[in-house]
Each structure stands twice: as structure tokens, then as C-alpha cells.
Amino acid sequence: MTDSGHDGDRERSRLGPVAGAVTIRCREDGPLVVEMPAEGGLGLRVTDHLGHEFPLPNHKRAVALCRCGLSGSRPFCDGSHKAGGFRAADTARPAT
Fold it and tell me: Considering the entire predicted model, what is its pTM?
């Protein structure tokens, strides 16, 4: 392990999500999917820059956030990226 502790970070990412952690997945050519842990989560809130909360249906444990700018229901994804030809194949790179 290095002084920075990054080896442990890489090990955790290979093994899957950390229990109790919020996971944010960058979908290929799609939205950011924010997922709450199944147990012990405090809940999910999405707010604007002024702190006003966007309503989430039925206290969802996951939400897809638009990153193409084409959604009619921003900040949430409505699938418009598919027809709009949005491309973003972000991949995680090892920490340096």
C-alpha cells in the first residue's frame, strides 16, 4: 500500500460497492445514476443551487441525473440523450 492509501481504493472498486456507501455510476452515453445503500441510508435529496429540494417520487433509492442537457425534466434524466446522440464514455482511471 502506498502512503496515499489508493491501493485500498482500487481494491474496493474491484470488489464492488462499499456497504452503506452512496454509489454514483456514470452510465455510458447516459445519465449519472445515484444509488443509496439498501440498508442504513439517510435518504436521498436533490437540491438546486439555492437549496430548494426537487421532489423524488416514492422516496426512491436511486435517481438518474441528466448530463446531456437535453432532458425536459432536468435535473433528472428522461432518456432524451438517446435521440440526441449524447456521447460520454467516461471511465475511471487509476489514482496517481
Answer: 0.69
